[in-house]
Design brief:
single chain, eight-stranded mixed beta sheet, alpha+beta, globular
């Protein structure tokens, strides 16, 4: 399984925006909630902050752009005038939202009330232990735990295995309690948590600011005692190379992962050996372990090219060896089993990828195992001792196909007759989870817009699925109360754009009067598959329709879906989204007066662009940490992610790209016109989208827009791209966002008068 490197998306918060299923009994709300009292109109309106204007002229290709709010960028994040302005914006937002604070608090209590606060994850078997995470009542963070497996050396793993609990079971051991570690910090995230091959040590990375610059610690897994000194200034990429060495990746001054290092336990970090330095600033490094645990793979990738090195963990001192060469336009991901490396390879001709294999000692002698198909995209692969699992996409939906492999040492030939895992919902999401290489048990996470996240173990020999864990949704949740649909909207060029839709069958009338929240992303080939989120019940149980527009620039319909929504075709992303909105209105899912839109990061760029293009189409918009100052950012190679993303957006140092990007960059296209109600968020420590981008967008909107609609800006001072770190803190943010949307729709009840 392969992780792509970072870009302008926070996956944790991306999940927060995906569609959810509603519970009928837990918070069914009478239609009278759509009314709001007139008292709000009589309250004196607070005055919004006005940012000072300082002309900053930027000239290129005979074109002069004047940025009056360029001064808001302060990379040190210490300028008193900048911080004062951000605090004024926060105070204004709090003041405007204060009238609905009681409702927001009730929303938060309602959302939190669905959470089973004391819970455990599905245990993962590793050696003689089960490893799992535990959450505790009232606590924001997880405990990392393990238990001994009784008779671990006995019977082979089975899909029916369960971890013993109770008085006679082996005792639970807490390896690391994040709640204890987080006490001294406003923000706390553990990104990597890696157990050594012999189970005696754990290495983990932590971020205490939200800037995604990590510190790595090694501890004794039994006593918690530190082993050696912390490793500073890391990415989250960290893997064991045997029991006494680690491989990790660090970043350059623009936070580009550029160096891979080998660390010997007990040695000072200054003595670590650099395995590879990627000097091309359009490439970034990542790191993964093979499922067999015999090799580590260091990859260097741009948005169009990827090549790989391998490290034999039994001989880390031998360093990296080239596995797949650096060839422009060729993208390879690799793994290992037996005498072969397995390679997923994409090129211009094989744009949806093929799977090939090569002997360990002759990496140029490749055999095609699965050929390229124009209608099926190979997204990922997962290897086992006797099986190859392929994660594919066809007609916008994920598929899991399993192929048997010959015994290790036998020749590999083209694979035939794989069998497909069946799923129950018409639209759904499925993701690979950590599995045991030596077993025949595939573990995956499944959900749909009406099925909570579910961990399954699938016996690849018997074809049997066993549910190991389903996320509890308290409050009488019943999936049968919800309808999920796949619809298709026509883009201006005739392309059919898939939409995923969910609503409560007893509350939504489909008469054009229902409120609707439309989510979009559409960048980096990211697939936004329809999945479940319990917090969204607070919208759906109030009669909302929730929809995802699977627009071009994403990867849902294959590689070309992405290619047709980037570079000089980026505007397809925006016009696709507008087409989806118009489809929903035409087909009575909502009206313009009830249509709200939401997106984060590169999805915030989408929101900014469509607000400038069609402000008449929407009632309210939420742009989370939005990448809205596209042209200025992409002209500045000192800003994190700029150099690595010239292959995503284009390089505006070239005239054609400059004028095309200027034509849609949201900050450059704000104009004197009416806009809908807008909420914009930022994180002061965000390394992916500088807080100054949304700040400038808001300041310019305040100056030019011709309406009196809401324009709110909320900047989190103790957070980064993924916002706050605690699980309940994130739910509080959901409540705030939903409160804003319902305020815009005049749906906040007068709780004081008992109208609820």
């Amino acid at each position: 399984m392969h992780q792509r490197h970072r870009h302008r998306i926070g996956l944790g918060n991306l999940l927060n925006l995906l569609p959810v299923v509603l519970s009928p009994n837990q918070c069914a709300v009478p239609t009278s909630i759509r009314k709001s009292t007139a008292t709000m109109a009589t309250e004196p309106k607070p005055k919004p902050p006005v940012a000072k204007k300082v002309e900053h002229v930027m000239e290129m290709f005979g074109d002069a752009r004047i940025d009056k709010y360029y001064w808001l960028r302060d990379d040190s994040r210490t300028d008193p005038e900048v911080l004062s302005y951000l605090k004024q914006e926060n105070a204004y937002t709090d003041s405007v939202m204060s009238g609905g604070k009681k409702f927001e608090d009730e929303l938060f209590a309602e959302i939190r009330g669905r959470v089973k606060e004391d819970d455990v994850s599905a245990p993962v078997r590793k050696g003689e232990y089960y490893y799992y995470e535990r959450t505790l009542q009232g606590k924001e963070y997880v405990q990392h735990c393990r238990r001994l497996i009784p008779n671990a050396a006995g019977a082979p793993p089975s899909v029916y295995d369960t971890m013993p609990t109770g008085p006679d079971a082996p005792e639970e051991h807490v390896i690391l309690d994040e709640n204890v570690k987080a006490q001294a910090h406003d923000y706390y995230v553990v990104a990597a948590f890696k157990v050594s091959p012999n189970n005696k040590l754990v290495a983990y990375t932590e971020d205490t600011k939200g800037d995604e610059i990590y510190t790595a610690y090694v501890i004794d897994s039994q006593t918690g005692a530190p082993v050696g000194n912390p490793l500073l200034g890391l990415t989250s990429y960290l893997e064991w190379a045997g029991d006494d060495s680690l491989v990790y990746i660090t970043m350059d001054e623009i936070l580009r992962p550029d160096k891979a290092w080998l660390h010997k336990l007990g040695a000072e970090q200054s003595r670590d050996s650099c395995l590879y330095h990627e000097k091309d600033d359009t490439f970034s490094l990542d790191l993964q372990a093979s499922e067999s645990k015999r090799f580590l793979f260091v990859a260097s990738e741009s948005k169009n090219t990827r090549f790989n090195f391998c490290l034999d963990v039994s001989k880390p001192e031998d360093g990296l060896k080239v596995l797949t060469p650096r060839l422009d336009g060729i993208d390879t991901s690799v793994s290992h089993r037996g005498d072969h490396f397995f390679i997923r390879r994409r090129s211009d001709e094989c744009f949806n990828s093929e799977i090939v294999a090569c002997p360990l000692d002759d990496t140029s002698a490749t055999t095609v195992l699965l050929p390229h198909r124009e209608s099926v995209k190979i997204q990922d692969m997962q290897l086992f001792k006797d099986h190859l699992v392929i994660y594919e996409r066809e007609e916008g939906l994920p598929k899991v196909t399993i192929y048997g492999l010959p015994d290790a040492g036998e020749p590999l030939k083209s694979l035939q007759s794989g069998h497909i895992v069946d799923f129950i919902d018409p639209i759904y999401s499925v993701e690979p989870l950590q599995s045991q290489f030596s077993s025949s048990i595939l573990r995956f996470d499944y959900s749909s817009m009406k099925t909570p996240p579910s961990v399954y173990d699938y016996d690849m020999k018997a074809g049997i699925s066993v549910l190991k864990k389903i996320e509890a949704v308290l409050g009488g949740f019943d999936a049968s109360n919800y309808v999920t649909e796949r619809k298709w909207a026509s883009a201006p060029d005739g392309t059919q754009i898939p939409l995923s839709i969910v609503y409560h069958k007893d509350l939504v009338k489909l008469d054009g009067l229902d409120p609707l929240l439309l989510y979009g992303y559409g960048s980096y080939e990211v697939c936004i598959d329809p999945s479940f989120k319990a917090a969204r019940l607070s919208l759906l149980d109030r009669g909302f329709v929730y929809a995802i527009a699977h627009i071009r620039g994403g990867g849902e319909m294959g590689r070309q879906w992405y290619e047709n929504g980037k570079f000089l075709k980026k505007k397809n992303t925006f016009t696709d989204f507008i087409a989806c909105a118009e489809y929903l209105i035409e087909n009575k899912y909502c009206s313009k007066e009830k249509l709200c839109i939401i997106g984060r990061s590169a999805g915030g760029l989408l929101i900014g662009a469509v607000l400038n293009m069609r402000p008449d189409l929407f009632k309210a918009a939420v742009a989370g940490v939005p990448f809205v100052d596209v042209l200025t950012t992409m002209l500045d190679p000192t800003i994190p992610l700029t150099t690595s993303e010239w292959e995503e957006w284009g390089d505006p140092r070239k005239e054609e790209f400059y004028f095309y990007m200027k034509s849609y960059s949201p900050v450059d296209n704000v104009k004197a016109q009416n806009y809908p109600d807008i909420l914009v968020t930022a994180g002061l420590n965000d390394p992916r989208v500088l807080y100054s981008e949304p700040a400038k967008f808001v300041a310019k909107l305040r100056d030019l827009k011709t309406d009196d609609n809401l324009l709110l800006f909320k900047c989190e001072f103790g957070a980064g791209h993924s916002s706050k770190s605690g699980r309940f803190e994130k739910l509080q943010e959901d409540a705030f966002t939903y409160g804003f949307i319902m305020k815009a729709l005049n749906m906040i009840p007068d709780l004081g008068n008992g109208e609820n």
